[in-house]
Amino acid sequence: MTRLTSELHRLYLMDAPARQGAEPQAPSLCDAQGRVRALVLGLARPADWRVVSAVWQGVQTDLGLPAPAIAVSGTDAYQLWFSLAEPLPVAQAIEFLTALRAHYLRDISPERITLMPSFSAQTPPQIQHAPLVPAEQLPTDQWSAFVAPDLAPVFAQTPWLDIPPNVEGQADLLAGLSSIPMDDFKHAAVRLAASAASVAPAAGTAPGPSGVSADPRGFLLGVMNNDAVALSLRIEAAKALLPYFEGGL
After folding, report:
1. Are 89 and 236 in contact (CB under 8 A)?
2. Rounded Cα distance, 239 and 235, in Å
3. Low-confidence ranges of the chain (pLDDT < 50)
4. Using an 8 Å Cβ cutoff, are 241 and 221 in contact?
5. pTM (2 decimals)?
6. Concatenated DSSP letters for 174-239?
7. C-alpha closest to that of 97 among 86, 110, 85
């Protein structure tokens, strides 16, 4: 295992469960129970480091969270990769990212923002996640890569690398990052949910990209009441809704 692979495991990857008699499966960003440790926020059309930098700095100064990794997508976007110390159900990950967008990016067109993981629009919905970084973006010769904060502004016009990134350099960038402890994540989620609720649009607001509503409570209600969604995910959505009802919102 290379240093880069080791760092990706430490921060983001979920080991696939071993099944007797089955071929071993490569680790991925989502496990069979619909849980993740990687949360990804992307901004494109155009990629604007000034905006992304405000989120990168804000989650550290306002919410007290560790710095997320900064990446260029290899196509058209900046990305922030958040690492969780413990796996989280996808519904709760979406709730957090949606509230994060509402808090820091409410003036940015939703069409420019990507939140991953997400649910696909197909029936029944499937979990989608961001492509792992670094990777070549076929059919182009461009590469996604993690980048240092002081070099991030350089990629505003071309959010990609023209050559494969140095593997050791990528490992070094990730080695300086840490995962979000679950207690800190929950505390930040409560603060973001309260902020989002205070500015949430009226019921019936059109969903944002990937079918995610701009109102996290409305989105979770939709997941909970959707018979096409896996029961385990509907249960997790119901759990995530409890603070709203306990608070009388």
Report:
1. yes
2. 6
3. 17-22, 24, 201-214, 247-249
4. yes
5. 0.78
6. HHT--PBPHHHHHHHHHHHHHHHHHHPPPTTPPB-GGG-BSSHHHHHHHHHT-TTS-HHHHHHHHH
7. 110
